[in-house]
Amino acid sequence: MQDFKFQNVVEMLDVLPENEKQIMMILRDLIISTLSDSSEKLSYNVPFYVGKKRIAFIWPGSIPWGSKTFEGVQLGICKGYRIDDPQNYFTLGNRKEVTTRTFKTIEEIDLTYIEFILIKARELDAM
């Protein structure tokens, strides 16, 4: 488990490697503008975006996830299994509900498509 706890997202961003920080800021700005009626809350030391329930999260690889590690920054859609993703941009992997996409560079980020998925996630949350 993690032996530290960030007080806010800005504090978390300050400790990230520059590449992760840039990816985080792009994804965070997109989520905040697209899910403007949601709130940003730290859980497990990473930002989650919450409406009625959790909608999405951003998890940088340098923040421990139990004993699991990975490279890049992962964007998760909490009820992604219920969203039609015609490009299969997000994957379910070995999870039951959460779909994710891991970005290692900012060039991999398709802002238009992610916004499309976030809008669907927001609509699902409103039901």
Task: From the structure above, extract its key features.
single chain; 127 residues; alpha+beta; Aspartate Aminotransferase, domain 1; five-stranded antiparallel beta sheet; 3 helices
Secondary-structure blueprint of this entry?
Blueprint (H helix, E strand, L loop, with lengths): L8 H7 L2 H17 L4 E5 L2 E5 L3 E7 L12 E5 L21 E5 L7 H16 L1
Antiparallel strand pairs: 1-2, 2-3, 3-4, 4-5
Describe this structure in words.
This protein has a single domain (9-126), classed as Aspartate Aminotransferase, domain 1. Helices cover 31% and strands 21% of the residues. It has helices at 9-15, 18-34, 111-126, and strands at 39-43, 46-50, 54-60, 73-77, 99-103. The protein has a five-stranded antiparallel sheet. β1 (39-43) and β2 (46-50) form a beta hairpin. α2 packs across α3. It is globular and about 35 Å long. The relative contact order is 0.18.
